Amino acid sequence: MSYKVGIVGAGFAGITLAQELAGASRIEVELIDRRNHHLFQPLLYQVAMAGLNPSDIAIPIRKLFAKVKNVQVLLGEVKDVNISKKQVCMDGQWRRYDKLVLACGAKHDYFGNSQWEPLAPGLKTIEQATEIRRRVLTAFEMAEKCEDDKEREAYLRFCVVGGGPTGVELAGAIREMATVTLKEDYKQADLSKTEVFLIEAGDRVLASFHPNSSKQAEKSLEELGVTVLKGEPARNLSVDGLEVGNQKIDARTTLWAAGVKPSSLVNCMQVSQHSSGRVKIEKDLSVPGHPDVFCLGDMAYLENDTGEGLPGMAPVALQQGKHLAKNLKADLEGRDRQPFHYFDKGQMATIGRSRAVAETAGRQFSGLPAWLAWVFIHVLYLLRFRNKMFVLMQWIWGYFSFGRGARLIVQKKWRFYGGEDIQYLGSENESNNEKQA
Ligand SMILES: Cc1cc2nc3c(=O)[nH]c(=O)nc-3n(C[C@H](O)[C@H](O)[C@H](O)COP(=O)(O)OP(=O)(O)OC[C@H]3O[C@@H](n4cnc5c(N)ncnc54)[C@H](O)[C@@H]3O)c2cc1C
């Protein structure tokens, strides 16, 4: 007996599964992704904040499997799935598998306000990261040549919506970039006056962390000069800013880090979904009623042994990819599948240079030790030696020089739809006084 395994999505879950199945006898793997690169999303904000280059955190998928005979990589977008037939429709072509694995991740959720997406890009892809970088750096350039004080202030005011790890990282990095890295580069605009608002609808930032970590993160943000607004959602986003409670914030740049929902592929499957939209899966990671169809990572919903839903985090996706490989091999050898148990190693978020919060084994720590742990873990989990070295070298250089080497405004305007599709709007839209639309 042999199996043809189809994996849709070469993110953390899909790539780990394919790597675990590499070289396995009697298993042929087809790994499909709509991008030609695997993206290390936890460092995406560093690309957005000009600390790293896109190629430092994006790895060509084909290169990873160049010498692996039983893994075929296909560049293509899956737009439909027939789970009863274990088929996917990639670029108009139906492909059938013995075992089908869906690991397409998540996209941004604008909570029913999709019109806000072009106004406030989220951070999920390289295109979005370079667009955010373009908007932030362009705002400083506009402030420099602006003659009107009020207008200049608006260019130097930034709103970040969502106080999760990504929002906290972005808010801290913008303030740090303005007041440390760039402060001497501009003659007209006083970048020390840069205001950053972090808007969190809940009652604390980093809600998934221990309250002590949230408090510590808020303290670090305030020390950096970020204004944290809690307890009210952002409303009425426009090119001129947004509203929070009864306050109107006149800001030219707004970034979105508020919510995620699973890939829209879940909508073309008749499956049971959690209220978050994620596909409910069995303990062996299969889709209920479809023992040969599996769903992993951010797309899937599974509870841990204490009944809590597993978080949308890289370690969950990695461990599920590894576990499924064992179960697929067990199927082939006629052994029983084993239930998945998540081993929670903890979580961490960085707020700026030498500032971070981390928690592991029920203990929380912060400051330089947490930041060093953050650096170590992220370098460790990056794929390929080349990327580990490049990232580490740039961080060491940045740490001692206070510099950010990737300060390039290279992109024109893009418009985002549904967190996934992007459309190039062309240079004719570059005017409009550079208001960030
Ligand atoms: C900015 C940011 C920061 C983060 N920071 C952290 C962190 O510090 N720590 C942490 O643990 N987690 C972090 N996460 C979350 C973590 O990255 C995700 O939980 C993890 O990537 C989920 O893995 P996945 O395999 O389910 O999906 P992903 O890694 O998102 O991969 C999905 C893949 O599917 C592909 N795909 C999607 N749709 C299709 C389609 N229709 N056809 C073909 N291919 C498709 C995509 O191109 C992508 O390659 C962060 C996420 C973001 C966005």
Any overview of this molecule?
By secondary structure, the chain is an alpha/beta fold. The protein has 2 domains: 3-34 and 76-108 and 261-332, 3-Layer(bba) Sandwich (FAD/NAD(P)-binding domain); 114-258 and 346-424, 3-Layer(bba) Sandwich (FAD/NAD(P)-binding domain), CATH 3.50.50.100. It is built from 11 helices and 27 strands. It has helices spanning 12-21, 44-48, 54-57, 61-64, 126-145, 149-155, 165-181, 211-224, 314-332, 368-381, 385-401; strands at residues 3-8, 27-33, 37-39, 58-60, 71-75, 78-82, 87-90, 93-96, 99-102, 106-108, 157-161, 195-200, 226-230, 234-238, 241-244, 247-250, 253-256, 260-262, 279-280, 286-287, 290-295, 300-301, 347-352, 355-360, 363-366, 414-417, 421-424. It has a 6-stranded mixed β-sheet with strand order 5-2-1-9-21-20, covered by helices on one side. Helix 1 runs parallel beside helix 9 (314-332) and helix 5 packs antiparallel against helix 6 (149-155). The protein is globular. The termini are far apart. The model is unreliable at 417-421 and 424-437 (pLDDT under 50). The protein binds flavin-adenine dinucleotide. The site of flavin-adenine dinucleotide has 34 residues, from helix 1, strand 2, helix 2, helix 7 and helix 9.
Question: How do the helices and strands line up, and which of them pair or pack?
Answer:
Layout: E1 3-8, H1 12-21, E2 27-33, E3 37-39, H2 44-48, H3 54-57, E4 58-60, H4 61-64, E5 71-75, E6 78-82, E7 87-90, E8 93-96, E9 99-102, E10 106-108, H5 126-145, H6 149-155, E11 157-161, H7 165-181, E12 195-200, H8 211-224, E13 226-230, E14 234-238, E15 241-244, E16 247-250, E17 253-256, E18 260-262, E19 279-280, E20 286-287, E21 290-295, E22 300-301, H9 314-332, E23 347-352, E24 355-360, E25 363-366, H10 368-381, H11 385-401, E26 414-417, E27 421-424
Parallel strand pairs: 1-2, 1-9, 2-5, 9-21, 11-12, 11-17, 12-13, 19-22
Antiparallel strand pairs: 3-4, 6-7, 7-8, 10-18, 14-15, 15-16, 20-21, 23-24, 24-25, 26-27
Helix pairs in contact: 1-9, 5-6
Bound molecules: flavin-adenine dinucleotide.
